[in-house]
Amino acid sequence: MTTAPQNLLAVRSLLLTYLNVDKEAVRAADLEPGEVGIVGDASHRGGYHCGSDRVVANDYSVVESTRDSSGLTLHASALDVGMFTVASGGRTHNLRTFSTWFVAQCVAGAADTRDIREIIYSPDGQTVKRWDRLGKRTTGDSSHLTHTHFSFFRDSTKAGRDQTPLFRRYLTAIGLIEGDDMSAQAESEIHQVYAGMFFGGSSMGRSVDPDGSGPQPAANSLIAKLDYLMLRVDQLAAQVTTLSNKDFTDEQAIVTGVLAGLPPEKIAEAIPPELARDVADELARRMVA
């Protein structure tokens, strides 16, 4: 049956720790446990809130990206966040500002947003919008007027990749977690390293085929180039092993070459007297015959 993965449960726990201000009472202003969901209810079929036992034919959460089709498991790969209001840093923060902050981070290409497939949200409580990394859709149904939906590429859920850094960064940015938020320059540098490592880019030079004629497409990321290098090293090692098992010495050719470069008297000097007599006798015999 569809289950909630530990990495998204960790995000849920983090949000409830800081946004469920009064944990002893249910209040409209707080983010309550029932407002942070991962697994869809029993009737839910299809989409990122479902694992492999509940997906449907041509499910968009599976077929539109190889990151999803290769990462499909029994885990759900989505998180819903409901309404809340919290005062921090001299400002009031709520689901609207929360959602637009996360969308802005995705649009900017922040490194810790790479696993987010989409965010369905309402910036004003009247219009539903969708940020979609794949550019497939721009809106969603009216239920997202009162909650924000995050979809995570399924391969990141399968790998158990930690998703808390982005959410912790939000809580730090609004002052609920003490500490300095990462500077824009640091974020940019981390993003450049991450992008170059896994995705390549215009500054990464020529593309290579990381697995020869295998299924991976040509790419210019550092990982692709390392894979390509290891492929070539393995091929070179195999060639060296093959060559080391071959005997390239042609003794007859060597003797013929040496003799061809010597005059008769030098050849005669090199032959021992007894062997010279035997050779002379054999030559005489052959001439008589």
The unreliable regions are none
The rounded distance between the terminal residues' Cα atoms is 98 Å
DSSP strand content: 5-15%
Calculate Rg over CA atoms: 36 Å
Helix share bin: 40-55%
| Strand/helix succession | HEHHEEEHEEEHHHHHHH
Q: How many structural domains?
A: 3
Average per-residue pLDDT, rounded, comes to 88
Structural class: alpha+beta
Gross morphology is rod-shaped
Instruction: Characterize the largest beta sheet: strand count, sense, and whether it forms a barrel.
Output: 5 strands, antiparallel
What's the total helix number?
Answer: 11
- Arrangement of strands in the largest sheet: 1-2-7-5-6
Strand segment count: 7
Give the key terms:
five-stranded antiparallel sheet; rod-shaped; 7 strands; 11 helices; alpha+beta; two-stranded antiparallel sheet
Description:
The chain is an alpha+beta fold and 289 residues long. The chain folds into three domains: 193 residues, no CATH class; 40 residues, no CATH class; 38 residues. 42% of the residues lie in helices and 11% in strands. It is built from eleven helices and seven strands. A five-stranded antiparallel β-sheet has the order 1-2-7-5-6. Strands 3-4 form a two-stranded antiparallel ribbon. A hairpin with a 7-residue loop joins β5 and β6. The longest helix has 23 residues.
Q: How is this fold's topology laid out?
A:
Layout: H1 6-19, E1 36-37, H2 60-63, H3 66-69, E2 78-82, E3 85-88, E4 91-94, H4 95-107, E5 116-121, E6 129-132, E7 147-152, H5 154-158, H6 164-173, H7 184-198, H8 222-244, H9 251-260, H10 264-270, H11 273-288
Antiparallel strand pairs: 1-2, 2-7, 3-4, 5-6, 5-7
Helix pairs in contact: 1-6
